[in-house]
Every structure is written in C-alpha cells, then in structure tokens.
UniProtKB/TrEMBL annotation:
Transmembrane spans: none
Matching Pfam families: Formyl_trans_C, Formyl_trans_N
Gene behind this protein: fmt
PROSITE patterns associated with the record: GART (PS00373)
Name recorded for this polypeptide: Methionyl-tRNA formyltransferase
Gene3D superfamilies membership: Formyl transferase, C-terminal domain, Formyl transferase, N-terminal domain
Native source species: Anaeromyxobacter oryzae
C-alpha cells in the first residue's frame, strides 16, 4: 500500500527479495500539471508494468478494501507513504499484521512530512523506521531502524530518494528477521515524539526575525514545495539558494542590501544575515540575485513588505 515515488524502492526491494506481491493499493489518479490531466501514482505505473493488480479505492474505512484484500489471503500488508490512515479491519487482516516504512527515526517526526520537517528543524541525521502498525499516527512498535546523514546542502527533494532506497533495504531486512522471529519490537517513547504535520503554502513564508540558519534550513526542507518566499512591495519573491552568515546586530530584520559580488544580504534575527544568491520574482523566471538587484536599480530595501 503506497502511492508516490517514495514507495517504489520498497516495491523493487520486495520483488528482488522474492516476495509475492498479490496487489498494489494506491490512491486514485489525481489531476496534475498545467492541463490538470489525470496522472497515475508512481506505484500504479510500477505495478501495471509488471502485471501486478492495482486497487485504487476512494475510501479505505468502509470495509470494501478489507474485503477485497481479504480474498487475496495476504501474509502481510506493507505500507509506504500510502497517505491514508488504516482502520483495524485492515491492520488485523493478515496473520503478520501491517508494517510501515516511515521516513524518520521514530518517535521523532511522526506524520505526513517527516523528510521535510527533519531538514527544516536543522537535524543533521535522519533515517527510516520499519514499524508494526497500530491505529495511532505512526505510534506502533519499531521493528528496525537505519540512520542516514543529512548533508549540508540536502533539500527534501535530494534526500527523499536516498531515504526511499534505504527504506526498501531496511524493509526486506526486517521481513527476513520477522519471518525468523528474530526481531524484538521496541515500544516508542511518546514523551520524545514530535509531529511532522502536512505542509501548507504559508509554511514557506519567511519570518525574518528568525536566525539565518533557521531560515536556510526551512528553505532546504521546503524545497520543492512550498519553498521559501517573501514579499517586496506586495509582490512575492521566492528564495531558491541562500546561505547564512554573521550579520549586523543592529539591522532591522528583513532589511536587504547588495553584498558586493556575492548576492543579496538580508538581515535576520540574532544578529545574523541570509545571503541570497538565486531567487525568482513573481511572474518572472529564476535569476541570479545580482541580476535581480541590477534590474531593481536599488542597493537597499525592505523585504516582507
């Protein structure tokens, strides 16, 4: 049970390890792109290319999906970024229950966007957790974890494929151990849990009172969506590349000036500055920050206005 590209390496790993895939369950095709044409989920594309049956129910808690899957008599349900919360009818359907491939080191970053929030919160490492599912939000016992370093330049876009590949490897490792009854489930410490809630467009709005490192981390974590954006005289400006550095403690947050030969330096909280090297003004293509300044014909102004 999985929908986006994150789930595909788990499918690859299961198939390569010799597991029989009775069906792939994905969310329905959704409109995408400028023309809003229906686009099939990545897992559906994978399954159809290999002759694996695909189920795409609109609802998962009305009993119909449990009935369809029950008829297949699976040993186990595997869930990887499916995007729906399963009820007890599905969680208890198979003799081995349901296991989840989650993109964080649980109990940290439970929820829909663990990869994005781990970067946005300044973590230097993350990983994958293979979890025995229960009816809570990523609250089940952990069966196996693998750690992955977050690079200084990693974005959610660059980190996700590496985590997905690690998830596939960890999944087949865990299933082999589970089959031999060689795994000891570890209960999560709820007191250490953090929530990786689903992202909203407004999460990308830059708060210039934050330290520059926090803003830079959020930019990386929220790439490609919702990104990091601010405003200049009511028009949006998207920040594409930036780095933190020491700044002028007396500068007003959001005060921007030309940084000779380097880009656009914006004052941030705690006496820091964010040097923006690439950006995209509303209605225009992405451009070098110095080119933006040259077109603006101003060397100092206030962002967030």
């Amino acid at each position: 049970m999985g929908t986006p590209a994150f789930a595909v390496p788990s499918l690859d790993a299961l198939a390569a390890a010799g597991h029989e895939l009775l069906a792939v369950v994905a969310q329905p095709d959704r409109p995408a792109g400028r023309g809003n044409a229906l686009r099939a989920p990545a897992t559906k594309v994978w399954a159809e290319a290999r002759g694996v049956p695909v189920l795409q129910p609109e609802k998962v808690r009305d009993g119909r999906l449990a009935s369809e899957l029950g008829a297949l008599r699976p040993d186990l349900l595997v869930v990887a970024a499916y995007g729906r919360i399963l009820g007890s009818d599905l969680l208890t359907l198979a003799p081995w229950g349901a296991v989840n491939v989650h993109g964080s080191l649980l109990p940290k970053y439970r929820g829909a966007a663990p990869i994005q929030w781990a970067i946005a919160e300044g973590e230097r490492e993350t990983g994958v957790s293979i979890m025995q599912m229960d009816e809570g939000l990523d609250t089940g016992d952990v069966l196996l974890q693998r750690v992955l370093e977050i690079g200084a330049d990693d974005t959610a876009e660059t980190l996700a494929p590496r985590l997905a590949a690690l998830g596939g490897e960890a999944l087949v490792e865990a299933l082999a151990l589970l089959e031999r009854r060689a795994l000891v489930p570890v209960r999560q410490d709820g007191a250490r849990a953090t929530l990786a809630r689903i992202l909203e467009k407004e999460d990308g709005r830059v708060d210039w009172t934050l330290p520059a490192q926090r803003i830079a981390d959020r930019l990386r974590g929220f790439t490609p969506w919702p990104g990091a954006f601010t405003t200049l005289e009511g028009r949006a400006v998207k920040l594409l590349e930036a780095r933190p550095e020491p700044g002028d403690p007396g500068a007003s947050p959001g005060a921007a000036r030309r940084a000779a030969g380097r880009g656009l330096a914006v004052a941030c909280g705690a006496g820091t500055a964010l040097v923006v090297t690439r950006l995209q003004p509303e209605g225009k293509p992405a451009q070098d920050a110095l080119a933006f300044l040259n077109g603006l014909r101003r060397d100092a102004f206030q962002l967030g206005t």
